[in-house]
Every structure is written in structure tokens, then in C-alpha cells.
Amino acid sequence: MERAKRTGLPAMVTICFENKDETAEGMNAADAAKTLFDAGADIVGMNCLRPPEHILGPMEQMRKAVSGYLACQPVAYRTPKDKPDFTSLPEFPYALDPLQLTRKDMADYAVQARDLGINYIGACCGTVAMHIREMARVLNKLPEDSRIWKKGGEKPMSGYEYYDHDSMKA
Questions:
Q1: What confidence tens digit (pLDDT) does each residue in 79-90 have?
Q2: Within 13 Å and on the Cβ side, how many CA atoms surround 139?
Q3: What are the strands of the beta sheet with 69-73, ordered from one edge?
Q4: What is the Cα–Cα distance from 93 to 104, expressed in whole angstroms?
Q5: What predicted TM-score, i.e. pTM, was given to this entire model?
């Protein structure tokens, strides 16, 4: 934190829990958040290793413990309760595809995070463009005219024709 503060820029420090709800030093989420803010962090939170299902509980503890800015960046993979760290799964790293969360799952996470008072809502490993787009959509961060499927038009049910793909030559 000392070096980060010397830059004059805001300092965001995020932690991750592996398969236990504590840091490598044995701190719970609330105590870790307090410690980081006391050390001078401008933003604290959690990132990586865990999906929304297993990261939002500790984030809620952080929110109850501190009033500062919080960031949350879960992975986009489903994990069991007894092994919330996706890197501890036998599917890691080459067979994670069936565990990937849907865009609806990530949208639901974004809404829950917002409702918990998380200020910076993002995502980490396994997240793809469709996840981010859907999170932005449910958080009203996309202008209506930038949405992929627009209402109206001559052929609103066919994106292929609507966007003139049928007139393009290969």
C-alpha cells in the first residue's frame, strides 16, 4: 500500500479465498477489508477463484464491516460448496467448459452485487463478452440503441437479413 499510495493514484486491493472462507493469513472477509482500508486502500474486494455463489457471502460481510468502496470479480464457473475454488476442481484447466455460467447467471450476480452495495462489479476467469454485455444490460449501463437486437425494422426476426448479411459477398 505504501508504494501504491506514492503513485498518487487510487489503490484497489482485492483478495481471494481458496477453499476456506479466509485469507492465507487466516483472516475472514470483514477483517481483511478493515485491514486493507486501514492500510490506505481506496477500494477493496475479492477477485478470482470463486463463482458468484461463493463470493457474494464474503462480499456481504465486507459491506457490513466497512463503508468504503468495494469491488467484486468472481469467476464464471460453477463450483461445489465443498470446493469453491475452481482451480481445485479435477476439471481445471482443460475441462471447465461444462461448468461455465450462463449470461443469465452473470446478470443475476451483477444485480445481487449492486443490491449488496458493491461499487465495482466485474468478473474474472471464464468470463466472456456475452457475460459482460448482459451484466451491463441489467445494470442499465448500455444505451438502448447499442443493443444487438433492435425492435422493429422490415425483418426483425432475422438478424441475418436485418443486418444485411445476405447482401455481402464472400
A1: 999 999 999 999
A2: 23
A3: 12-15, 43-47, 69-73, 120-121
A4: 23
A5: 0.84
Q: Is the peptide bond before 93 cis (omega within 30 degrees of 0)?
A: yes
Q: If 0-12 CB within 10 Å is exposed, 13-18 middle and 19+ buried, where does residue 165 land?
A: exposed
Best CA proximity match to 43, nearest among 123, 121, 133? 121
CB 70 within 8 A of CB 119: yes
Percent of all residues in the chain with a pLDDT value above 90, rounded to a whole number: 82
2.60.120.470, 3.30.360.10, 3.20.20.330, 3.20.20.80: CATH of 2-144: 3.20.20.330
How is the chain split into domains, by residue range? 2-144
CA-CA distances (angstroms) from residue 29 to 96, 114, 122, 139? Answer: 27, 18, 18, 25
